[in-house]
Amino acid sequence: MNKAKIFRIATWSAVAVAAGILIGLKGILPNAELQEHVSTGTARVGGPFDLTSQTGEKFNNARLAGKPYLVFFGFTNCPAFARPRSTS
């Protein structure tokens, strides 16, 4: 490698490191804008449920009392029965 190429690589590396440091410092500087937490209330979805596992074991919302949870009903791979889910 010639000296000019090494100099270019070193210069661009220094610029990238300096940019990364400046971007990182932007979040901790005193005049950085703080995002205010805005609550939109509580969700009014869901409710009690009773399910049966693949082994026949009963499962309901009482087993998850006091813990946050999310239930999604969907297939991970079923090309013969369902069309692909849209990402839009």
TrEMBL record:
Organism phylogeny: Bacteria, Pseudomonadati, Pseudomonadota, Alphaproteobacteria, Hyphomicrobiales
Pfam families listed in its UniProt record: SCO1-SenC
Keywords: Membrane, Transmembrane, Transmembrane helix
InterPro entries named in the record: SCO1/SenC, Thioredoxin-like_sf
Organism: Aminobacter niigataensis
Family: Belongs to the SCO1/2 family.
Keyword Chloroplast: no
Name of the molecule in the record: Cytochrome oxidase Cu insertion factor (SCO1/SenC/PrrC family)
Residue stretches spanning the membrane: 6-25
Gene3D superfamilies, per database record: Glutaredoxin
Keyword Lyase carried by entry: no
